[in-house]
Structure formats: structure tokens, C-alpha cells
Amino acid sequence: MRGVAARLRAPLAWRPAQSVLLPAAALLAALAVGLLLVAATGVPVGEALAAFWDGIAGSSFALVGSLTRGVPLALVGLGFILAERANLTNVGGEGQICVGGICATAASLSWGAGKLPGALAFLFPLLAGTLAGALWGAFAGVLKARRGSNEVITTLLLTFIALQMVYGSVQSVHLLRQPMTDSATLPESLEIPAVTQLPVLTKGSGLPLHIGLAIEVVVAVLVAVCLARSAIGLELRAVGLNETASRRAGLPVERLVIGALAASGGLAGLAGAIMIQGDQHYLTSGFSSGFGFDGLVVGLLARGSATAVVLFALLFGCLRSGGMSMEMSAQVPSAIVVVCQGVMVVAIATATAMSRRQRR
């Protein structure tokens, strides 16, 4: 009997360690693959690693860049796990970032945000971007709830539409393109007014560490509380576990599905607004730079934990910073970083599947 009890307790004892060991093992596997690929390029590994570290934390500006690159990744990842609780997969973070950036730019340049007093000048564009992303997610939610459409397909197709909307916005002088003074004028918007840009947290230091980082932390806490301590989190879990039983229990399944995808899209739209107001300060074609897709990976790796989302977002932000520095300083292709991210995803997914099979 003791042997049987020990075997039954083993999976339970393994779960806390698993949450730490799996990401660590995946990170080591990705690092090993990355080092092999760097060596294959002919660049000295030590030189490449030095450039990689300089890009992450070689200076105060590099460290701030790594932190701020993690902010939109975390917001998209938090939105992903929010929808995932209801067994919904939002793969449209890139498109929701795009519409959020468009509306934040329009609010700053054309909708009078620059004339608003005090904090309203930058809060209004943030709200506009959030609502735009929420609307984009709600489209997929309505199609899912009312027509049974697969949300993976609809959110992905809406992403392609949003990408073209960004392109069209910066190509037309009647929309957001800056006035064309000559043929060399770039297809991008004017710089948004200073009052609509996000305030920095370290005034006087010259470092561009803006309040987007504080917003990320607050949103992470709210999402964690919502999922673990609120009635909405419990209802989303019920819908995710058994939608039919939830309907019979009287839960408003349609509203929960639409609301979950709208909230997920809203967080991605907020990420797009923060990218415009906090980092780039103008809209250009391709400004989203794949952050929505990387945020999707962050959400997948986090496995429903808001804390893990923040940590993985920081990791991926560092990988982006280090990869760019490695490419510029050591002439190592930044695609190696993308390969390492893929190795991490495959390693964690494989280990998770194996552990689930073992528990069964």
C-alpha cells in the first residue's frame, strides 16, 4: 500500500518542480542550438556572446531597451492566456497591435488628443488603441459565438486585414501619411505631439523608460486576480472545460466568449498604442515587427500563468535586443534567435506532453 501511495503522490510532487525545470531545460536546449549555429557561421562564439550581452544589458540604454521590448510581448501574452482560460486561441495579436497603433496615432494627430489637459493627452490615445484592439477581437468573438467560426482562422485572417490597413494609412495623405514635400518623403505619419507621448519613469536621466512598464505590471496583476480570484475567471474556466454544461447551468456563454476575445484583443491593442506612444512616436508600415506573433509564443509558453507571461516576455525582449546587437556588431544573422525561440517552444511542448502522459 505504501508503494502505491508513493506512486500516486509522485506526479503531485513533480508538478511544482516541473514549472521550473521545463523552462530551464528548454532554455538550455535553445542556448546549445544557438551556440552550434553561431559556430557554424564561422564567427568566434565568444565574440558573438559578448555582442549578444552588450545588446541586452551592456549599457543603461540597452537594459531599458530590453525592458521596454518586453512590454508589448507581455500584454499580448496576458491577453492570450485570458482567452485561453475559455479554451479560445487568439492568434491575431499582430493585427490587434496594428489597429491599436493606427487609432493611437490618429487620436494623437487628428482627434485632438494634443489639446487635452494633463494626463488626458496621452491617456486618450491609449484608450483609443485599447478599444480598437477590443473591437478587432470582438469581431472574431461574435463569429465564434453566433456562427461557430473557428477563432484561430478568424483572428489570423483579421490580422492580414489589419496589416494592410496600416500600409494604407501611411500611404495616403488623406489618412495618416505625413505631407509629401518631395519624392523622397517616407510613407509614414508625422511624429505624435510630445504631450501625447508616454511619460518617462526616470526624469532627468535621459533613459527612455516610460510608464508602459508600470502599465504592464498593473495589467498582469489584474489578469492574475481575474483568473484566480474572480467569478468571471471561474465562469471562463467552466466554459473552457465544457461549453454545453455551462449553457445548461445558465451561464451566458456567448457573452463570455465575445468578452474573452474582446479583452484579449484590447490588451494587444493597448500594446500597439504603447509601441507608438512610448517607443516609436510615429506610425510606419510594419511597425508591429512581429511582436504579436512573439507575444503569442509567450502566452503559449506561460501555460496560463500571468507571472510566467511577464518572465517569458522579459526573456524574449532580451533575445530581441541581443539578436539585433549580435547581427550589427558580430555579423551573426539575427534569425538564429528566431531558431532558438522555436527550439524553446518545441522543447517545452514536448516535455509537457510527456509529463501529461506520465500523469495519466
Short summary of the structure?
This protein is mainly alpha-helical and 360 residues long.
Keywords:
single chain; 360 residues; mainly alpha; 13 helices; 74% helix
Describe this structure in words.
With 360 residues, the chain is mainly α. It has 13 helices and no strands. The chain has helices spanning 2-40, 45-57, 60-84, 93-109, 120-147, 151-171, 212-229, 231-241, 243-248, 253-280, 291-302, 306-330, 335-359. Helix 4 (93-109) packs parallel to helix 6, helix 4 (93-109) packs across helix 10 (253-280) and helix 7 (212-229) packs across helix 8. The longest helix is centred in the N-terminal third of the chain and has 39 residues, at 2-40.
Q: What percent of residues adopt helix (DSSP H or I)?
A: over 70%
First-residue to last-residue Cα separation: 20 Å
Rg to the nearest angstrom? Answer: 22 Å
N-to-C SSE string, H for helix and E for strand: HHHHHHHHHHHHH
Described by the principal axes of the CA atoms, the overall outline is globular
Secondary structure class reads mainly alpha
Largest sheet: none
* β-strand number: 0
Strand proportion: under 5%
Query: Could you tell me the mean pLDDT?
Result: 85
> How many helices does DSSP assign?
13
* Poorly predicted regions: 4-14
